[in-house]
Amino acid sequence: MITLYQFEVSPFCDKVRRAMRYKNIPFSVQEVSLLGAGKYSSAKKLPVLDDAGTRVEDSTQILHYLEQKYPEPPLLPADPAQLALCNVLEDWADESLYYYDIALHFSFAENAKRRAGHLLQHEKPWVKRLMGPFVPGLLRKMGESQGAGRRSREVILSDIDRHVGSIAAMLEGQDFLLPAGLSAADISVYVELDAIKVAELGAEIIARYPAVTAWMVRVDALTGESQ
Phi-psi region for residue 53, left (φ > 0), alpha (ψ -120 to 50) or beta? Predict the structure, then answer.
């Protein structure tokens, strides 16, 4: 049995859960404290996957491991050009869209406390008391160090709208981001948009693009808990 060590609210952990559901791989989850990731990860980051003693860190590395060991149904296209685009879209989701999620939630004061509560929901009461006042500021600084969090409120929202509009354009005439069908690119982009839409302003932007909302329904149908 595979065990996934996770922070439930993390989009990267959601990415791995969805990949395993799509591939019909049985797994269990173990929720890890924000203070305890170093017990499982040399980088002190989650997710970490344990497959009968084989441990794999980082959501992208985990997806490649799963693809090699459990190749059906595939999440990586066989066509080299489509595979290249899949890799680019996955990296864009992980390294760009993710920081708009951080900026939207922790640079916008009205969202920070609620999102911090989501991050701490599985923690012990003393950890909540200790970490609660500091989590919003720590994550805001992380977004600022990457760059997205240093932008004005108007620019952050405009950038998110531009990115969601680009996704809508990519979906024109097809059900998924790549012609080959659902791929790691779809899951990677989906989990970031799903996190963004937790914020009311993020949900409003996504709702402007019916092609994107319909695509999200399709991805969730194939990879969500009810699949």
Answer: left
Buried b (16+ CB within 10 A) or exposed e, 45-59: bbbbbbbeeeebbbb
Q: Which residue do the tokens 């998110």 mark?
A: 160
Average pLDDT, the chain: 89
Distance CA 179, CA 201 (A): 31
Kindly state the helix (H) or strand (E) to which residue 61 belongs, with its residue range: helix 59-69
**98-118: string of b/e by CB count within 10 Å (b at 16+)?**
bbbbbbbbbbbeebbeebbee
| Radius of gyration, CA atoms only, the chain | 17
- Decide if 205 contacts 164 (C-beta within 8 A): yes
Predicted TM-score (pTM) of this structure? 0.90
Look up residue 181 and give its DSSP letter.
Answer: -
pLDDT, tens only, 84-122: 999 999 999 999 999 999 888 877 777 666 666 566 666
